[in-house]
Design a protein that fits this description.
There is one protein chain. It contains 7 helices and 7 strands. It is of the alpha+beta class. The strands form 2 sheets. The protein has a 5-stranded mixed β-barrel.
């Protein structure tokens, strides 16, 4: 019995099987503790906005122009001259669209895996099992005779197994995504007269996109203006809808149109 257990442990904790075996062991321990009632096993779908609309414009002005008056025994530091010249070429981190594009790709990738659309404990449970299964089977059936169980090959093989597990988890959780996170029921009639925010760099009579906030992920709408060009971040109101092209016509919200 002891020899069998030792052999199983040796087969589980070797090469690229190590990370997967450790992860699934932690998930088993967590599940056991949860079944004993010591941990609240949250089975509700996460109320997370996976669109990750992170506007990384990074318009950070390092010139600290603050008075910062601390009236404590007359101590009033003046931090007005806070600009630090580090020398070298000026690097403008606010590259229009670059970081926004990267954040959009990351958000799309995360949402594609259904992470955040099903309860995390379910997603992690399925992923842990698929990661361990792929790592164990592929190593003992194929990789063990081709690679040494050293650090670099094991790390590279673990990355490959990780990707395989993510893809498998995506398709295994697909039936659960709609159950725990049904798509919002918004149609053109309900959107008439509603407000949204321009998300593209600009919106005109020929191009534009806007985000309509919902309780879950925002809706991305194709829009056109019937007037001047509007910039990103402008609040607009939906006034018309073209069903053939699925394009909404919007106008800028001004003090006159807001009332």
């Amino acid at each position: 019995m002891t020899e069998t257990l030792n052999e199983l442990l040796e087969r589980m904790f070797v090469g690229p099987v190590w990370p997967a075996s450790l992860l699934i062991s932690l998930m088993v321990i967590y599940s056991l503790i949860a079944m004993l009632g010591l941990v609240d096993l949250d089975m509700n779908a996460p109320d997370a906005d996976m669109s990750v609309d992170a506007d990384f414009g990074m318009d950070a002005d390092l010139a600290i122009d603050g008075d910062m008056s601390l009236d404590a025994d007359g101590f009033t530091p003046d931090l007005e001259a806070g600009t630090v010249d580090m020398g070298g070429p000026d690097i403008d981190l606010a590259q229009p669209g670059t970081l926004e594009f990267i954040s959009g790709i990351m958000a799309t990738t995360v949402r594609w895996t259904n992470f955040g659309r099903v309860p995390m404990v379910i997603w992690m449970g399925i992923f842990s099992f698929m990661f361990w299964l792929a790592s164990y089977v592929i190593w003992h059936e194929f990789d063990a005779s081709r690679y040494e169980a050293t650090l670099l090959p094991s790390a590279l093989l673990s990355i490959r197994n990780f990707v395989i597990a993510v893809v498998a988890t995506k398709y295994l959780t697909l039936p659960l995504a709609d159950k725990f996170n049904p798509p919002p029921n918004y149609d053109s009639r309900r959107l008439m007269g509603q407000t949204c925010t321009i998300s593209s760099h600009h919106a005109s009579s020929a191009f534009g996109q806007a985000k309509f906030a919902t309780d879950t992920a925002p809706l991305l709408l194709n829009i056109r203006t019937n007037g001047p060009e509007l910039l990103k971040g402008t609040k607009v109101r939906i006034i018309d809808f073209d069903p053939s092209n699925r394009i909404y016509t919007v106008v800028e919200i001004t003090p006159e149109t807001e009332s």
